[in-house]
Amino acid sequence: MKSAEHFLPEFLRALDEVAKPLFEGVAAEAKEKGLSATVTADDDEFGNPYLQLKILSEEATEISSYSLKSNAVSHMVVHVESFGPNEESKEIRTNAASINRAVLETELAAFFVKSVGSRLEFVQEAHPVGF
Question: What are the pLDDT digits (tens) for 106-115?
Answer without folding.
Answer: 899 999 988 8
